[in-house]
Write a structure and sequence with these properties.
It is an enzyme of class 3 (hydrolase). It catalyses: L-glutamine + H2O = L-glutamate + NH4(+). Belongs to the glutaminase family. Homotetramer. InterPro entries: Beta-lactam/transpept-like, Glutaminase, STAS_dom_sf. By secondary structure, the chain is an alpha+beta fold. Helix content is about 40%, strand content about 15%. It has 16 helices and 13 strands. The protein has a 6-stranded mixed beta sheet, with helices on both faces. A 5-stranded antiparallel beta sheet has the order 2-1-7-6-5. Strands 3-4 form a two-stranded antiparallel sheet. The longest helix is centred in the N-terminal third of the chain and has 16 residues. The two termini are about 25 Å apart. The relative contact order is 0.12.
Length: about 475
């Protein structure tokens, strides 16, 4: 069975495509010439599964999204107390490139505006490091986060360097205020080079998922960012990551996030998912117009808002199998007698992450065997597929839609599907003739599959 999640992501993109206002960043020549028809979205789960749609291999410069990860490096290299001496954590309410410092301390207000990001860059490897050494450390770390070797877009770097007067001004202002101690020209050049690293949405989603996974890369298992740094970074992303649109973002999307003027956005929901969107047209605050709309729909549909009370509990997915056998009062010649049944049980509060795990479990157990995974398709010959919601006490809207679509696709493949849903959490109409059989209990489901009075011999767990 093909997963319904990529199809859903394509629908999200199509919903955002008619949005036509905004413009690419005009102050950087290479970005001003961006193809505004390009658009992509990606989701990376904390266990490493990645979904994407649209122009998901199109590369663009990371720009200010790099600030979140370089802030983490600054904390790792200089220590959080030293970083907090140099960079605040309060929203500025100003444009990201504003020439301003905090009264009394002379610190940049936060690490997500340019002044704070330049300061964070200067703290990587300490004041004695060169721009090349800092860039090498940053590029290496971002590559480990993405899971592949990234590169600097030299054309973007040169274009930004030609128009770096404001950032150079910030660098000299920071040096005069005693915030940075090294050559401001070197620091600004390194900062611009960090922003010119090329990525795609799949890279960004995996980088965000690493933040969601307490700094551990979901695929490689490498602990790329210390957990204490992750907490600090996500906190500042929540309050400052979307510049002076941070309040609207937290209200409408509710996910720690960071945007970049090339049109990228990342979001990291701890313990669940990393997401990324890309579209070059920006609003007046420097955030991708379509990217924001994509993230709003994902958050709304999937219940990803961090203030959603349904986040308190998670869901588990259990796979089991049983063999139908005749009971003393049942028909031993029933066509399903001695045949296998596969059971997928869900427990707890089921949200998108739980339905996504269920999608993978169904695809794995009922799919085609492969040399790479000998266990794939081990229940492909099952006479019936059972979904048990006996221990699931809630489903949010997107989980329900995903599971409905799983069932629809299985039935389109002429599978016999039985749903055990004593509390009605799936909200599936039992009266529909083209739907699955809805049972209130395991016994009712067994009798439907194998005839009245049949039994089941469990191969795994209990049913």
């Amino acid at each position: 069975m093909k997963s319904p999640i990529p199809d859903y992501l394509n629908r999200v993109l199509e919903n955002a495509r008619p949005i036509d206002y905004g413009a690419p960043a005009a102050y950087i020549d290479t970005l001003a010439r961006a193809d505004t028809s390009k658009m992509a979205v990606a989701l990376a789960m904390v266990d490493g599964n990645l979904y994407s749609a649209g122009d998901d291999t199109v590369e663009f410069s990371i720009q200010s999204i790099s600030k979140a990860f370089v802030y983490a490096l600054a904390i790792e290299d200089a220590g959080l107390p030293r970083v907090l001496e140099k960079i605040g954590v309060e929203p500025s309410g100003d444009a990201f490139n504003r020439l301003s410092l905090e009264r009394g301390t002379n610190r940049p207000m936060n690490p997500m505006i340019n002044a704070g990001a330049i300061t964070a860059h200067s703290l990587v490897l300490g004041p004695g490091a060169t721009a090349e050494q800092r860039t090498e450390r940053i590029l290496g770390t971002l590559s480990r986060l993405a899971g592949r070797e990234l590169r600097v877009d030299e054309e973007v770097y040169e274009a930004e360097l030609r128009d770096a007067d404001r950032n150079m001004g910030l660098g000299y202002m920071l040096k005069a205020a005693g915030i940075i101690s090294c050559d401001p020209r070197e620091v600004v050049r390194g900062y611009i080079r960090q922003c010119a690293i090329n990525v795609n949405v799949r890279d960004l989603a995996m980088m965000a998922a690493t933040l969601s996974n307490a700094g551990v890369h979901p695929v490689t298992g490498e602990h790329v960012i210390p957990q204490t740094s992750v907490r600090q970074v996500l906190s500042v992303m929540t309050t400052c990551g979307m510049y002076d649109a941070a309040g609207d973002w937290v209200s409408n999307v509710g996910i720690p996030a960071k945007s970049g003027v090339a049109g990228g956005i990342i979001g990291a929901l701890p313990g669940q998912v990393g997401l990324a969107a890309f579209s070059p047209k920006l609003d007046e605050r420097g955030n991708s117009v379509r990217g924001v709309a994509i993230c709003e729909q994902l958050s709304r549909d999937m219940g990803l808002h961090m203030m959603d009370v349904s986040q308190i509990a998670g869901a588990t997915v259990r796979t089991a199998s049983a063999k139908i056998v005749a009971g003393p009062d049942s028909d031993p010649h029933h066509p399903n007698c001695r045949r296998e049944v596969v059971i997928f049980g869900l427990r707890g509060a089921v949200r998108f992450a739980g339905s996504e795990r269920l999608t993978r479990a169904v695809s794995h157990e009922l799919g085609e065997p492969s040399e790479q995974d000998p266990t794939a398709g081990r229940h492909a010959g099952a006479c019936a597929v059972v979904f048990s919601f006996r221990d699931a006490y809630s489903l949010n809207a997107v989980a329900r839609r995903v599971i409905h679509e799983i069932i629809r696709r299985l039935m389109a493949d002429e599978r016999s599907v039985v749903v055990i849903d004593p509390s009605g959490v799936l909200q599936m109409d039992a009266s529909r003739g083209d739907g699955p059989y809805i049972a209130k209990s395991e016994a009712q489901a067994r009798n439907y599959i194998g005839g009245s009075g049949c039994s089941a011999i469990m191969e795994e767990d209990t049913w």
